[in-house]
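Ticket opened by: R.M.
Priority: normal
Category: complex prediction / small molecule

The reporter submitted a protein together with pyridoxal-5'-phosphate and asked that the result be attached to this ticket for the collaborator who will pick it up next week. Submitted input follows.
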Amino acid sequence: MTDVSMLKENLNKINERLRRAAVKRGVSPEEITLVAVTKTVPAEAINAAHQLGINNFGENRVQEALSKIDFLPGDIHLHFIGHLQSNKVRHVVPVFDLIHSLDSIKLAGVIQKEGEKRDRKVNVLLQVNIGDEKSKFGFKREEVEDALVELATYRNLKVLGLMTVAPFLPDPEEVRPYFRLLYQLFKSIKIPGIEMKYLSMGMSNDFEVAVEEGANMVRLGTALFGDRLKK
Ligand SMILES: *Cc1c(COP(=O)(O)O)cnc(C)c1O
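Result attached by the on-call engineer:
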């Protein structure tokens, strides 16, 4: 059973924290898109969140996302946020509105081909490994500019911004410099055909700091749905 009152309470708290962070940043709270991360969350709870006004949902596993899709409202925007394997691209492109996790030129080539086959543009964010962590996917900071110049020539790919999974540090203040670095990079990109519209950074433990540093898309799982069962 979905605990709707808990969900509502969590959402109210998140919205208030987002509002405060936006005000601190000097932007309107409406400019911040909340992506509710629904990995391990059953379709029933996703529907409850939708009824509370959430329209953007993120999944990080293809199989899990596809298993729920038939039980979700038709008017939602789906975000793919996990590492995407080339052989899954054909399943992801028709279902997801935005792929946050474009993490290699090779993957971009596969997505481009899939877009071409379907005669449409696929919306992506370039994933940046801002903390230079061995355990994380994404382009290194110094690779981003060249990668974007290359991707600008891919006709069926539409780059709409940058995404990062920042280093996990218990004190979100310690993550602030990483967010600041990515925002600076985001702002510095001036490449024809590349739109720097979305900066996807900030998760449950650090989203306020992310917004204060310029994020306009945050990805929240546990803050909204509670602790996941560890898989
Ligand atoms: C799980 C996940 C999130 C959400 O994490 P929480 O800490 O539960 O908010 C955000 N982004 C990515 C890429 C994730 O895998």
